[in-house]
Amino acid sequence: MQTLRTPDDRFIGLPDFDYQPQFCDLDDDDGGTLRVAWVQDGPEDADPILMLHGEPSWSYLYRKMIPILVEAGHRVICPDLVGFGRSDKPTQAQDHTYARHVEWMRALAFDVLDLQRVTLVGQDWGGLIGLRLLAENPDRFSRVVVANTGLPTGDIPMPEIWWRFREAIQTAPTIDVGWFVQSGCRKPMGEAVRAGYDAPFPDDSYCVGPRTMPSLIPTTPEDPAAAANRSAWAALCASDKPMLVAFSDGDPITGAMAPIFQREMRGARGRAHPVIHDAGHFLQEDAGEELARHIVEFLRG
Fold first, then answer.
1. What's the short name of a Pfam family annotated to this entry (predicted)?
2. Which residues are catalytic?
């Protein structure tokens, strides 16, 4: 597997994100290894909060939330998905599969970090991957927070706006990642913050992950990932793991999933679920502090 690695100097001076990265080498499922990165903060002996980002962002997305969760006494771990952030970036689209991305995060969380009693926080692809981890490794988790995400099986059509996003990011001559993140927010980002989202991608050769991920989402019942996601749905619906559904009020891509999670997931029933107002798809950027406070309250309960 051919990969690229973003130079370290691209990450110098990022606003509000001076966490020192940690790295490990994982089996790439192709005879080699991949370097995967994460940042963490908080007491080593505290139960972990595993926060997974989505497409086309990276762990920088959680910079507003980490201090609030740490101040409340929690250990926070934010990996970069393969192809994003400081993690290695496979250069061929066929190297990215849904199953591989689930396995890479499983290996990091459980083989390398040996996380137990995990609270999962998943947004966008962070939910698509994280909910599979939860369904397939339930003994490792204690709670889950879903935020502007889903678990598609290909049995229900994706919204038209998602198809437009998929076409745009796959066909653009070059990808301006900061622009794509800004387009998924309600509030304007400053130039330095937008540059932070661009940092992992010096040029378009590094952008195979962002270009490819939309094509991995099951859009037909016969998709290679559809059966595994259906099994995960069944396991999650039957699970009594406490679930907080914390969606924004301004996400046309995943917004319809909030009432489905609340209705179908046993662990979500009978709970007051917050709505994050004046926030778009990337609610961590628009209202990260508010989302973090809801998570703190959820964990106290």
1. Abhydrolase_1
2. 124, 251, 281
pTM recorded for the entire structure: 0.97
Q: List the chain domain ranges.
A: 3-300
CATH 3.40.50.1820 fits 3-300, yes or no: yes
- Nearest to 49, CA basis, from 188, 149, 147: 147
What are the phi and psi torsion angles at 41 (to 5°)? -155, 160
Select from 83, 23, 25 the least CA-distant residue to 57. Answer: 83
221: DSSP letter: T
Q: Do 56 and 175 form a contact (C-beta atoms < 8 A)?
A: yes
pLDDT value of position 301: 84
C-alpha span between 193 and 180 (Å, rounded): 13
CB 11 within 8 A of CB 196: no
Residues 6+ positions from 20 with CB-CB distance below 8 Å: 39
